[in-house]
Amino acid sequence: MKKFYSALALAAACLSAQAADVKPAATLVRETASEVSAMETTNAPQKAAPQKAPASNMSELQGLYTGTYYMPLKGYDGLQTNSFAIVPTGENKVDVYGIADAGVPATVDFAKGTIELPGSFSLGVQSFKEGDFEVVLTHKHWNADGQGMYDASTTPVIWNIVEGGIKAADEMDIYMLPLVGKEGSYMLGGGYAFDLTKNPENNPEQWYTTGEASFVDDGWFCPLFSWQEYFKLPGVPTLTCQFQRSSADENLVALYDPYGGLNDFVHSLGGQYVEDNIIEGNLPGRIVMNITNKQCVLVPNTYTGAICDGLWYGANNEALSAQDMLDADETMTVAEAAEAVLGFLGPENTSNYDEQSKIITIKNAVFTALGRRNESFADLDLGSGVVTIMLPEVESAIKNITVDENAPVEYYNLQGIRVENPAKGLYIKRQGNTATKVIL
After folding, report:
1. Which of 211, 316, 348, 432 has an alpha carbon 20 to 30 Å from 400's alpha carbon atom?
2. CA 167/CA 382 separation, integer angstroms
3. What is the DSSP letter of 46?
């Protein structure tokens, strides 16, 4: 993969503010980070209603979260909001996304109701205007009087699994992202008093699978790969995934878990590059499309998956412009907003759905990491900005297939062979009419 270090977004923010006990980082951060802000809280999902009890197993713990925390930086010391995710990686092992620009490995103890994060974790050497520097996530702790902090990197950070989410066991624990490799310490970001609330999936019952779609991504994630260099492919690959429709709105369609098979695909080509850090597991997302106006398809900013060192979101500029209009005028409908965007851009420049060929062409694609728009990252090559989606030739009419919780559970390995007593690893779990990949 191309080295796009800062493209995954530096944790809570790339900041050029000065902390109480660190030197300014303004001369080190990229020019593209000059328009610095906290995460775009206007796009953050709403917090979920509390669960009846704290998560007691990996299935309940994994998922997307909305987190609040405070920044230990002058000028950014107010309450911040960010998207987080817990992605299982093995038995009682998870990666926590949202703290830094990569998944932070952690150990879960359901008996104690805790998540243990490392006191120090290197994010590797990253490139900045003044050179390459190692970035290390470091555990510090506020002094008792709240003035200054001391190093606590030899001890882990503990988060408690609580009703409805996750919360820092000690609100005085700080995670900081300084730069190491130049005289002094330069601050990039950090946070303390983390409080995460799990997000419910938006109306999961409304989605039903009607077939398998294929798509060529030359605008979102796939252009980040050097397919020609690594795999001798002339262009980006064609991926397949579930195609879904909404029972609540006939104009909403989606690609479910669009990048779920990407890792297997890369491995099938003979490539398994550790430095690429393609996630073995996955936290499925969707690419949602509103086809109300066939000449102006809207792709609202939606979580697509924890694909490679980050939480990734896909959208198109048509949807972002339409949303601005809807926010400004509460009486406007989606159809009216789409028509207005179409009139402004012209049909030759907008995403469209050709019903005869059953092809949706997404133009003006916007791909984001941790909610940040790709315009912030000048070093990214995002291809043509076009994503071509081939819908199923024939779609099933079966809707709302649900899992029978009383149906027997069967496990199969990735070769399709049934396993009676599965050990640790990745398996296909079948229960009733539903089959899913799980990590045991």
Report:
1. 316
2. 36
3. P
Neighbours of 22 (CB within 10 A): 20
Q: How far apart are the first and last CA of the chain?
A: 29
pLDDT confidence of 226, banded at 50, 70, 90?
A: low
Query: How would you label 185-209 residue by residue, b for 16+ Cβ within 10 Å and e otherwise?
Result: ebbbbbbbbbbbbbbeeeeeebbbb
- What are the backbone angles phi and psi of residue 335, rounded to the nearest 5°? -60, -40
3-state class (DSSP) for residue 74: coil
Amino acid, res. 310: G
> For residue 358, with 0-12 CB atoms within 10 Å meaning exposed, 13-18 middle and 19 or more buried, which class applies?
middle
3-class DSSP assignment, residue 286: strand
What are the residues whose beta carbons fall under 8 Å from the beta carbon of 388, sequence distance 6 or more?
Answer: 215, 216, 218, 359, 360, 361, 362
Check: pTM over 0.85? Answer yes or no.
Answer: no
Query: Taking each helix axis from N to C terminus, what angle separates 334-345 and 317-328, rounded to the nearest 10 degrees?
Result: 120
pLDDT at 154 (0 to 100): 96
Give the mean pLDDT of the chain. Answer: 74
Q: What does the pLDDT read at residue 290? A: 96
CB 1 within 8 A of CB 276: yes
Extract the tokens encoding 299: 């792709």
Q: Is 411's pLDDT higher than 80? A: no
Strand ranges (E), 143-220: 149-151, 157-162, 165-168, 173-180, 186-198, 207-218
